[in-house]
Amino acid sequence: GEIRVFVYLDSSDRPIATVNEPLITLGQIAKLRVDSVGSIGAFMDWGLEKDILLPFKEMVGKVRENQEYLVYMYMDKSNRPCVSMKLYEHLSVNAPYQKGDTVQGYVYQISEKFGAFVAVENYYQGLIPKQELHQKLRVGDVVSLRVSEVREDGKLNLSLQKLSYQQMEEDSEMVYE
Predict the structure, then answer these.
(1) In this predicted model, what pLDDT tens digit does every residue of 48-78 receive, in sequence order?
(2) Bridge partners (DSSP) listed for residue 33
């Protein structure tokens, strides 16, 4: 019979084969949990014995132990698996959504200039423009959003607001109170 194994290098650069399936593989984006923060970065649980490194330079903001973050896996210069929170160029731009659709978004970067960069359904490129940011968001927040525009480049503009008639109802209740 055959068995499928995943091969990676241990800390002494020896190849190790394991039957455990990693939670992320090269070129993939996945949510991983921080096990510990050390002197060179954070170590994240990726389902194998040895944690995977999220180097400080690949972080967006501070990360906390036991929190989950969306990361992209790459190989570093010494050919070791690492992960990065910098997702911008790794997210897909041909999202299957239309204006008005409701989607889940993971906030992966906040920009003073542009707004909140969002990984829609952990896979597609989205932005809540600065003028749409009516509440304080943090990296790692998962929010429900409305697609306000599918841009020509395939990226999504997103809004935290519910559809206007739902919003109106809430507003009028507030006024009433």
Answers:
(1) 988 999 999 999 988 999 999 999 999 999 8
(2) 45, 68
Q: Are strands 124-129 and 156-159 parallel, antiparallel or unpaired?
A: parallel
Tokens of 54: 């999220």
Asked if residue 158 lies in contact with residue 148, where contact means CB atoms within 8 angstroms, the answer is yes
Using one digit for the tens of pLDDT, what is the confidence trace for 138-155? Answer: 999 999 999 999 999 999
Q: Judge whether 51 and 63 are in contact, CB under 8 Å.
A: no
Single-letter amino acid, residue 5: V
Closest C-alpha to 159, from 110, 119, 102? 102
The answer to whether the CB of 47 falls within 8 A of the CB of 22 is: yes
Predicted TM-score of the model (pTM): 0.82
Distance from the Cα of residue 81 to its chain's centroid: 18
Question: In degrees to the nearest 10, what's the CA dihedral of 164, 170, 172, 174?
Answer: -140
- DSSP string spanning 90-134? GSBS-----TT-EEEEEEEEEETTTEEEEEETTTEEEEEEGGG--
Among positive and negative, which fits the CA dihedral 95, 98, 101, 106? positive
